[in-house]
Amino acid sequence: MPMFGPSQEDEYLSWKREHPDGYVANIATQPQLDMIHKSGCRTLNRHDGKAETHYLKDCADDWKVLSANSRQRGHSYQLCDICL
Ligand SMILES: [Zn+2]
Q1: Does the pLDDT at position 73 exceed 90?
Q2: Which of 2, 39, 49, 70 is 20 to 30 A from 22 via CA?
Q3: Does residue 63 fall inside a structural domain?
Q4: Ligand 1 center from residue 81 Cα (angstroms)
Q5: Structurally, how many domains does the chain consist of?
Q6: Is residue 47 part of a domain?
Q7: Is residue 84 in a domain?
Q8: Distance separating alpha carbons of residues 48 and 73, to the nearest angstrom
Q9: Per residue in 22-65, pLDDT tens?
């Protein structure tokens, strides 16, 4: 499952296009709380011209993979209230 950082905005955007039913976790470090979204969630789209990969992204076709990865990192996770 791919992870995308700030230098991989294009790769991340094409992953999202190719996985409309996939899931994306925003990995936060302060606090260590990851937010899991459907790949089409409107809150993932930024309109200010900045890169979406400001947060490191963990992407998968099943959100349970993302929640397991989050636990493995020692993070907590939440499911987005808007899309999940
Ligand atoms: Zn969402």
Answers
A1: yes
A2: 49
A3: yes
A4: 7
A5: 1
A6: yes
A7: no
A8: 30
A9: 999 999 999 999 999 999 999 998 767 677 787 899 999 999 99
